[in-house]
């Protein structure tokens, strides 16, 4: 018997994309999400993440509201703002953008619309508190007192997945890289060249976005959580390493009313199978990492689309979930391992060239079809 009904726990990038992809193949999907809110920052989508957005019919809408680049902004500048290197990144031959950056809450709205257009229902403020597996179904209890029965449950509930804990126990837990990410999204800042700027011990990613927003991101080698004011003060110190006129002009906008998002960089990889019986993990619930390849969200998009492809194959569940895992594990492992490695190299003061020698082959590998 095929998979006709799916519960997706977590309505983030992975969960909503899975609902859209599965719904398009005629599978009845329900999504529950505890909060329903995406964090107020930018998400870069490159490589095959673009194809995954296309597969669920979201690409045109994301291109319409996001900032689309014909070439991924893999350009490396020194502290003075002079170009040091720029690997040749040819534009895609199919006319699609090579790189998109989009405000996460806007992306979440588009993904939700795609999921609902494909027939999925989305309930916000609800999670699961009970999960009983049987040979032919999974019975689920929800935190609002309701219940349901499904052919398959998808755990798309992120780094601290409740589904993973319920089904896999505590054997896999997030590990800290000992670093934090600082992200700032000024509006109306001066425009300049997108790329990676190298200061004394800082790699600063700067990407002009849509709606006059600019994405600014750095890593700091200490994972103590900082208040908004401390995050701002730290980012100001990072800017002091740069004499680039563009970055100096940007820094002038980092006034006390600006919000700097501080987030611990943690990582996680479920090494064995991502399913147990009729429950499968996708996205950060199965593999999470830092932003050094800008590909964690891309893997979440790809996971969702590949899972729907495998379910549409009509193979027995155990077979298709094994195939899903063997298609996904190598790509996701590359992303997790390379990102954590790059995070460590950056903490230890690696140069743009040293980082590029690790980053570039991984990105090329990820440009192959999923
Ligand atoms: C600083 C930083 C920058 C990044 N930048 C990029 C980037 O530019 N490009 C890129 O591709 N990747 C990037 N990533 C990685 C990317 O953010 C993640 O890989 C991606 O968000 C994973 O999507 P997800 O849907 O699996 O998980 P999440 O986005 O975490 O979504 C999980 C969802 O589950 C819900 N949830 C949680 N618990 C429960 C529960 N018990 N019940 C119901 N719902 C629940 C949450 O509310 C949430 O909506 C970055 C990561 C970090 C840390």
UniProtKB/TrEMBL annotation:
Domain FAD-binding: 5-338
UniProt key word Oxidoreductase: yes
Keywords on record: Monooxygenase, Oxidoreductase
Record InterPro entries: FAD-bd, FAD-dep_Monooxygenase_BioMet, FAD/NAD-bd_sf
SUPFAM superfamilies, sorted: FAD/NAD(P)-binding domain
PANTHER family assigned to the protein according to its UniProt record, in alphabetical order: MONOOXYGENASE (PTHR13789), PUTATIVE (AFU_ORTHOLOGUE AFUA_6G14510)-RELATED (PTHR13789:SF309)
Protein name (database record): FAD-binding domain-containing protein
Organism: Amycolatopsis deserti
